[in-house]
Write a structure and sequence with these properties.
The complex is a heterodimer of chains A (299) and B (708). By secondary structure, chain A is of the alpha+beta class. In chain A, 42% of the residues lie in helices and 21% in strands. In chain A, strands 1, 2, 3, 4, 5, 6, 7, 8 and 9 form a nine-stranded mixed beta sheet that branches. In chain B, helix 11 (372-381) packs across helix 14. Chain B is flat.
């Protein structure tokens, strides 16, 4: 294949979009609620459940308030991008498809050392787990590869295969850049001028870090969390055309989850409370997962 | 004789599961083959990143024909019974044979083709394989460790035909994922298979992969005057991560060498699975690493080396950042943070534990003659590094980092060493601390753990020991014995219990610790309930330590009955217990010892028999009144023995005490052979004499518990 190697952060994304589009995936846009990982997009958490085939790829901005470093750490961000692929049922040749995507972004598999290293993935806040690997390229983790076994405490059948690429890290590796803020966001030879990742996001990292660690009012966060928590079952109790309002209810779970992450970053959650908060979110998520599966079966 | 070759080809199998998988495959295959009456001449299994393989030599192509014997009804039984039997066997009455009044059916069974049996065996193995964790994939219901892609199964160069959930058997497999032509190839027997794999860049045998790694590492090192820092655990792991393991040497920025070598090695090992290297003949690390790649790259590995070097740099930059941040903070803020760290819900915070360890280390220092100030200082600081950033990242560096930071902060060297070494020994091959201050803190750490968990009834049961209390007990034992420490354990155990109960409150086993402690009445006077509990915990723990010591002594080849005989004396000084066991062991190997033991048993049997008739006479043995040389002899021997035996025991000269006991052998033998105990006028005194023998010997060990 003589496709041109991507030269910028955005062309890396476009290359992956193009590749997965050619494999037959639906190319989605990010979900418009703050989430901590691409997995939490309803296109993964909910669509992984139920019998219907589903193949999608999308970029998801991910927020980890506690990882904010005021733009001073070259590797850590409180807002970054994950590239997410979900294939249900996972095709027989999913590993080959994945390796094809690495080739597409310009990693020569006969020069680089690609390894599949055991990593059992789990996300306790959504009651999900699966088996798979971290994929290493020359010693660096470039993707997470998982066969979902359970989501929301329910068995995933047929099994969905999930791929998550940490886009900034992958781009830094492909472009040989040591500091995330130096990544070329667009083509460095653009006639309209080169723009770096830092020019787009550095100020955002600074302001959001300050807000995450000092800005948010803990009492307000807590109140909002509890409101969301209360609203989820109420929303699920409503229905339209005989279907419970799972999708809006799940958005509320996501909001609760993000509020929890903000409280955590503010240091407002004692170690002993942590598990109980995570359990509360998981319970809400399970309610949504069950309601979603019921709708799929009925359909 | 025909050969069976089976390969289960899958996506990447976790490295840690491969060795066991090879064993399980072998065991299951042997069981299935044996059940079918097959005993292969040779059977070998292999496990690697993408395949489990089995080869069995010398199988017949079919089971032998055999005759099955079925027992039917009695001759003359109701006709229905006979009809039923004929239906079951498919025979007519004239084909039955009468034997001992019973109808017998002899049915010729054709031996089944081996291929059929193999097909069933493979299905049973695949469906019943004991992976520690397995999964389903796609739309299949089958479980395997990761998706199973192919099954190669040939018997005598023919495919054994079957399919498991849509995966058909065949004679085709694949080689390396990235190297070679990438084309599947046919293998009809093991030779073709091995040659095919080799040609497709797969090393089948894990031992060969390890040898290849070591050899490759040595070649790389030799060229640059380096030495590999060997690491068996890491070697085992990386040998399961590559089908064509290829060591690649990379460079590390030498500036990182100012980090502690443990930090560099841990970072290399846990995050990156790299081997560390050192300059030939020198201590410390060299600024390089070796990664084990899965390919022999077209460019000789330059890109791989550069990529890995970059990842390592960012890892070590993180470590450097943790170090720099940590040395800005210091012990006191870390100690403060321990207030927020729970040790165990029922045993309080880590800070409370530190308080107990500090004071206990002081008490133990006093007992063993270590510097009191240094021991309490080290005890106070021992756990501080748990809240440092470096230990947060690398928990296995607990203690080690505390030791380094203590030196950076200018603390006394003995204190720093004690912080570093107080977790030791962490396993049977780990050295025990020897410096007195370190010993005091190491013992305090372990005793506080033992007392705490025993106090809340979290004792190990069976194979469950979630708080590693057996390891802690073994640590206590090894520290005491290897340092030849003389310490009566009850005192520090009681002290440790008192610290716990005084500070946490009273624990009543059901509600946890609480402040109001009930009073109990002991011998008519009120006492705190905790003092009873502390005593019970101490007694329990002595028994627990004794049990662990038994295991240690057994491992050294000491007879367990001798250990029991010595433990029965209720001693809590481990070094003294061991000395007694050793002396007793030596004594019982002598003729005197064996005979005296026999004499003891006879005497003790007489006493037991007489005891059944009523209480034994009390009081001191008196000089014999009958004119009997044997009686006088034993009486005198016992009287002469008393003082030297006591002296030897007081001096803890147990071999000497045994020598003294040996003096009893002749007189005891003569007495038992020549004196009739049950003469009415002499009975009481004669029983007292036998009791005196038992008591004298009982000062050395409970001979009644010794077999023989």
């Amino acid at each position: 294949m003589s496709r041109e190697k991507p030269k910028s952060f955005q062309s890396l994304i476009l290359t992956l979009h193009d590749y997965w589009s050619r494999q037959g995936c639906v190319i989605l846009q990010p979900h418009d609620v703050e989430v901590g990982a691409g997995t939490l997009h309803p296109a993964t958490v909910l669509r992984a459940l139920g019998p219907k085939p589903w193949n999608a790829a999308y970029v998801q901005p991910s927020r980890r308030p506690g990882d904010g470093r005021y733009g001073e750490n070259p590797n850590r961000l409180q807002h970054y991008y994950q590239y997410q692929v979900i294939l249900k049922p996972n095709p027989e040749n999913m590993q080959d498809l994945y390796l094809g995507s690495l080739d597409a972004i310009g990693l020569d598999l006969r020069t680089h050392d690609i390894r599949f290293v055991e990593d059992d993935w789990e996300n306790p806040t959504v009651g999900a787990w699966g088996l798979g690997w971290e994929v290493w390229c020359d010693g660096m983790e470039v993707s997470q590869y998982t066969y979902f076994q359970q989501v929301g405490g329910l068995d995933v059948s047929p099994v969905a295969g999930e791929l998550t690429y940490g886009l900034e890290r992958l781009a830094m590796y492909v472009f040989g850049v040591d500091n995330v803020y130096d990544l070329p966001f667009n083509d460095p030879d653009s006639p309209l001028g080169a723009t770096s990742y830092g020019e787009v996001f550095l100020e955002n990292e600074r302001q959001q870090s300050e807000a995450n660690f000092h800005g948010y009012d803990v009492a307000v966060l807590k109140q909002q969390f509890e409101q969301m928590e209360e609203q989820v079952p109420l929303m699920l109790a409503r229905s339209y055309r005989n279907k419970a309002l799972v999708l809006p209810a799940y958005d509320m779970v996501l909001k609760a989850s993000h509020l929890f992450n903000l409280m955590n970053a503010r240091g407002a959650i004692a170690v002993a409370e942590r598990a109980s908060y995570i359990g509360r979110i998981r319970d809400l998520c399970k309610l949504c997962a069950q309601a979603w599966v019921d709708q799929q079966d009925a359909a | 004789m025909p050969q069976l070759l089976l390969e289960l080809f899958s996506e990447e199998i976790p490295a840690r599961m491969q060795a066991q998988a090879a064993k399980d495959l072998e065991r299951m295959a042997r069981e299935h083959l044996a059940a079918a009456g097959f005993l292969p001449e040779a059977l070998k299994t292999f496990a690697g990143p993408r395949r489990l393989t089995l080869v069995a030599e010398g199988l017949p192509l079919a089971q032998a024909d055999r005759q099955e014997e079925l027992k039917g009804p009695r001759v003359g039984a109701p006709p229905q019974a006979l009809e039923g039997f004929l239906r079951k066997t498919g025979l007519s009455q004239d084909q039955l044979v009468e034997r001992d009044g019973v109808y017998m059916a002899f049915i010729d069974k054709k031996g089944r083709p081996t291929a059929e049996i193999v097909a069933e065996m493979v299905e049973a193995i695949v469906r019943g394989f004991p992976w520690p964790k397995s999964m389903t994939w796609g739309t299949k219901k089958l479980r395997w460790v990761r998706p199973l892609k192919r099954i190669l199964c040939v018997l005598d160069r023919e495919v054994v035909p079957f399919a498991i959930e849509g995966i058909p058997s065949g004679d085709v497999t694949e080689g390396h994922r990235f190297m070679g032509d990438g084309q599947p190839f046919v293998a009809k027997d093991f030779d073709e298979y091995a040659a095919g794999l080799e040609a497709h860049f797969v090393v089948l045998d894990v031992e060969e992969r390890k040898a290849r790694i070591l050899e490759g590492c040595k070649t790389l090192c030799f060229a640059r005057h380096l030495e590999l820092v060997e690491d068996q655990g890491l070697l085992d792991e990386v040998a399961g991560l590559a089908e064509w393991p290829t060591p690649v040497l990379g460079d590390m920025d030498p500036a990182f060498l100012d980090l502690p070598p443990e930090v560099i090695r841990t970072s290399m090992r846990t995050h990156q699975k790299y081997f560390a290297v050192r300059k030939a003949g020198e201590a410390g690390l060299a600024p390089h690493f070796i990664t084990i790649a899965n390919i022999q790259a077209a460019d000789g590995g330059a890109v791989i080396a550069a990529g890995n070097a970059k990842v390592l740099s960012s890892r070590l930059s993180d470590a450097r950042f943790f170090w720099d941040e940590d040395v800005k903070v210091g012990f006191e803020p870390w100690l403060d943070k321990l207030n927020g760290v729970t040790f165990h819900a029922k045993l309080g915070t880590m800070a409370q534990r530190v308080g107990r360890i500090t004071d206990l280390a002081g008490q133990i220092a006093h007992i063993i003659g270590a510097d009191l100030t240094k021991a309490t200082e080290a005890g106070r600081l021992a756990k501080a590094d748990l809240t440092s950033q470096m230990v947060g990242e690398f928990p296995e560096l607990q203690g080690v980092m505390g030791g380094y930071y203590a030196r950076v902060f200018g603390l006394n060297g003995e204190v720093a060493d004690a912080i570093r070494d107080h977790y030791k020994p962490q396993g049977p091959s780990d050295a025990v601390p020897t410096a007195p201050v370190s010993v005091a803190v190491a013992l305090a750490d372990k005793l506080d753990t033992l007392v705490g968990f025993f106090a809340i009834d979290e004792k190990p049961t069976g194979s469950k020991d979630p708080f590693a209390l057996r390891r802690a007990a073994l640590g206590v034992i090894r520290i005491i014995l290897e340092n030849e420490l003389r310490i009566s354990l009850k005192a520090p155990l009681r002290q440790s219990g008192a610290f716990l109960y005084d500070r946490q409150g009273f624990h009543d086993r059901t509600d946890g610790f609480k402040r109001e402690e009930p009073l109990v009445t002991v011998d008519g006077s009120p006492q705190r309930a905790s003092s009873q509990r502390i005593e019970a915990v101490a007694v329990d723990l002595i028994a627990f330590l004794a049990d662990r010591l038994k295991v240690v002594l057994k491992d050294q080849g000491k007879r367990h009955d001798l250990v029991d005989a010595v433990f029965a004396l209720g001693d809590d000084d481990l070094a003294r217990i061991v000395a007694r066991v050793e002396a007793l062991d030596g004594f019982l190997k002598t003729d005197d010892g064996k005979n005296l033991l026999a004499g003891y048993k006879r005497a003790s049997n007489i006493l037991k028999a007489e005891e059944k008739k009523g209480p034994l006479p009390t009081g001191e043995m008196q000089a014999p009144t009958a004119d009997s040389a044997a009686e006088v002899g034993l009486y005198n021997a016992l009287r002469l023995l008393a003082k030297p035996l006591k002296d030897a025991l007081d001096a803890e000269d147990f071999t000497g005490a045994m020598t003294q006991l040996a003096e009893l052998r002749g007189p005891v033998d003569a007495y038992l052979d020549g004196v009739f105990v049950n003469e009415p006028e002499h009975r009481d005194n004669r029983l007292r004499t036998l009791a005196a023998v038992r008591d004298a010997m009982g000062q050395v060990a409970d001979f009644g518990l010794i077999a023989g």
